[in-house]
UniProtKB/TrEMBL annotation:
This is GED domain-containing protein. Residues 93-181 form the GED domain. It comes from Penicillium oxalicum (strain 114-2 / CGMCC 5302) (Penicillium decumbens).
Length: 181
């Protein structure tokens, strides 16, 4: 039986290794729409950060005021034009970094989901031949007393302690009866 269990666990490990190999050696690609969403958020976040550095308070600069009394931030057009002077190589480097960062964010989630669904759940719990199916009622009925004892029996230490406690209870019971008589 142990051999069968090991085979089933080995299949799950092989499935996890297969998924790992695909992610590591395969072509990085995804059809997940979250890649585009993450890229947009990344690019918008970078622009937002740059614009916040150049933003000025509208009230203190005399450019305008808010209707509710709160301070509003504004950006001058000339500051926006100076914003993107990073050069072609810098822009390319940022884009590559952003694409890789966003791709691996999506790929990592996909990998974790696939390992959970395929290697763990399918091969170990709910699939056609998970290890738990080895322990069906027919298998348990077919076990000998020694096999049952080996699998579900108490340890020898526990058995000795149980015998010692039974003897102690009998001795105490005998002592109580002697006192009553």
């Amino acid at each position: 039986m142990m051999g069968e269990l090991i085979k089933k666990y080995h299949r799950a490990i092989c499935a996890a290794n297969f998924l790992h190999d695909i992610e590591r050696a395969g072509t990085p690609m995804t059809l997940n729409h979250y890649l585009n969403e993450n890229l947009q958020n990344c690019w918008n976040g970078r622009l937002q950060k740059k614009w916040e550095e150049k933003a000025i308070d509208a009230q203190t600069s005399g450019l305008g005021s808010s209707t509710n009394g709160a301070s509003e931030k504004m950006i001058r057009l000339k500051d926006l034009q100076r914003q993107n002077n990073i050069g072609t190589s810098g822009h390319t480097l940022q884009n590559i970094h952003d694409i890789l960062k966003c791709y691996y964010k999506v790929a990592c989630r996909r990998f974790v989901d696939n390992v959970c669904m395929q290697a763990s759940d399918h091969y170990l719990v709910t699939g056609l031949e998970p290890p738990l199916r080895l322990f069906d009622p027919a298998w348990v009925i077919g076990l000998s007393n020694s096999q049952l004892e080996e699998i579900a029996g108490e340890s020898t230490t526990t058995k000795r302690q149980r015998l010692r406690l039974r003897k102690e209870v009998q001795d105490l019971e005998s002592g109580r009866r002697a006192l009553v008589e």
